[in-house]
């Protein structure tokens, strides 16, 4: 077992309350796919793998001993340490599922630690699956996902000073060792690796970049995977999405949480879903930034195949954003389709 973190992981302490993510009928949230692996959100049915993973001697040596000895305790651990990241953060550790047989061989993902200015990559493998290149393949994909989908120009990785194998994986995906010393509230030394540099875009350009990435995740043309699992990363957890009624419908507004907005679109845009060959793009926009708040008015166009019928359409959106930390987040969206 290898993990790119030398200290005890601190999932959401003092920041995020428990969010009961999985309910009956929740869609499978696939994050990305590689040649051999699918990385997806963990589900309660993965409890057997999780219990085995966190009981491994390597996990206890490199991370911590969670004191989990049975399935019931493993379920509680999953709720607190895995599920709690997904909707509030849009990040977390994801199941590393082998495409050939559906076996979960490990976990890999992106975590935002309080003491780092950008996310870092973490991973773990069961010992019997080490040596097959899965860690490097998943870590490389997470690096690309962070940059290409989430828009993170800077990424970190940490290892225990004695964990040379994990250091080699980080270096293999382009990271360089930056420093060695205690990180966060740990008293033990860790190696800190990194790749990229902090964002240098203007505030206006950052807002425009975020909205471009927002629209891009809905694109499932030519067999693309629409990475809708990224959407919670773009929003405040308490964001409100509102859809005005269509022309000809009774006047009204449909209000949705981030989850209520995302879940049906995951089902619609999945392979075999109702909506295929879909894309949506901005045709006109006006951006106003004042300090840490911003407002965008835009027109959009869209096209696709819905229930087997090709269509085109468009409308208007208004987007309110805030910058609570280093990144802009969407606080509210309201839209109306015109055709």
TrEMBL record:
Residues 37-202 form the N-acetyltransferase domain. One of its GO terms (molecular function) is acyltransferase activity, transferring groups other than amino-acyl groups. This is N-acetyltransferase domain-containing protein. PANTHER family: GNAT FAMILY, PUTATIVE (AFU_ORTHOLOGUE AFUA_3G00765)-RELATED-RELATED, N-ACETYLTRANSFERASE DOMAIN-CONTAINING PROTEIN. Pfam families: Acetyltransf_3. It comes from Kinneretia aquatilis. The lineage of its organism: Bacteria, Pseudomonadati, Pseudomonadota, Betaproteobacteria, Burkholderiales.
């Amino acid at each position: 077992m290898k993990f790119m973190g030398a200290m005890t992981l601190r999932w959401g302490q003092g920041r995020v309350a428990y969010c009961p993510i999985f309910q009956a009928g929740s869609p499978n949230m696939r994050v990305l796919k590689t040649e051999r692996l699918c990385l997806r959100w963990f589900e309660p049915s993965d409890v057997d793998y999780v219990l085995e993973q966190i009981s491994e001697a390597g996990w206890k040596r490199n991370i911590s001993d969670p004191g989990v000895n049975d399935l019931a305790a493993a379920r509680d651990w999953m709720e607190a340490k895995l599920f709690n990241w997904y909707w509030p953060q849009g990040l977390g550790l994801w199941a590393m599922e082998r495409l050939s047989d559906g076996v979960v061989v490990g976990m890999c993902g992106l975590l935002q630690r309080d003491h780092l200015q950008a996310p870092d990559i973490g991973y773990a493998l069961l010992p019997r699956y080490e040596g097959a290149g899965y860690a490097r393949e998943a870590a490389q994909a997470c690096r690309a996902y962070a940059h290409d989908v989430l828009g993170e120009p800077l990424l970190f990785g940490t290892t225990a000073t004695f964990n040379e194998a994990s250091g080699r994986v980080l270096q293999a995906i382009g990271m360089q060792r930056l420093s060695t010393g205690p990180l966060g509230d740990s008293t033990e030394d860790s190696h800190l690796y990194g790749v990229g540099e902090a964002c240098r875009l203007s505030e206006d350009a950052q807002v425009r970049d975020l909205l471009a990435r927002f629209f891009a995740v809905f694109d499932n043309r030519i067999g693309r995977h629409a990475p809708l699992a990224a959407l919670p990363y773009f929003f405040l957890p308490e964001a409100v999405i509102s859809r005005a009624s269509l022309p000809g419908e009774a006047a009204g507004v449909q209000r949705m949480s981030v989850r209520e907005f995302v879940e049906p679109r995951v089902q619609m845009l999945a392979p075999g879903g109702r909506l295929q060959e879909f894309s949506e793009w901005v045709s006109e926009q006006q951006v106003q930034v004042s300090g840490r708040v911003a407002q965008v008015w835009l027109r959009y166009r869209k096209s696709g195949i819905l229930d087997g019928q090709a269509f085109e359409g468009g409308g208007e959106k208004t987007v309110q954003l805030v910058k609570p930390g280093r990144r802009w987040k969407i606080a509210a969206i309201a839209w109306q389709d015109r055709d």
